[in-house]
């Protein structure tokens, strides 16, 4: 897979020297509720993950890319395709921008646009979807700004520290003329 480049960011494959980056992200408890993580990952486990990150999306059913700023190649986040289903031509999309000061600069929106276009043009996908916690207004606006439509609600889907929360289901369906 080649790098996908936009105006502000580029998406690139994980490299062996991304181990420390993955270690910090996967062990950041502030994002565990949205990532589904319940315990920390060791560097050994993450190294094994990196060693297999080159495997084909059709084999492993997921793809994780690093979001880098174009001007200085600084990694600002990660974007994932998960639950890739070639039979039904769909995949889930998840994104994280690491630092608050890097948010609201257009990086996430451009990454979503680039990866969605890759899904439609190169993977022949019919749709990309996102599952967003009902309290995550920022992500809801982000996905809506990028063409995703809220199509459903899973009630009491996510167990958080303060109780159950609904999860909102968003879809971006390829416009075929």
From TrEMBL:
PROSITE patterns (alphabetical): GNAT
Annotated protein name in UniProt: GNAT family N-acetyltransferase
UniProt xrefs under SUPFAM superfamilies: Acyl-CoA N-acyltransferases (Nat)
Annotated Pfam families: Acetyltransf_3
InterPro entries (alphabetical): Acyl_CoA_acyltransferase, GNAT_dom
Annotated keywords: Transferase
Source organism (scientific name): Aureitalea marina
Domain N-acetyltransferase: residue ranges: 9-171
One Gene Ontology MF term: acyltransferase activity, transferring groups other than amino-acyl groups
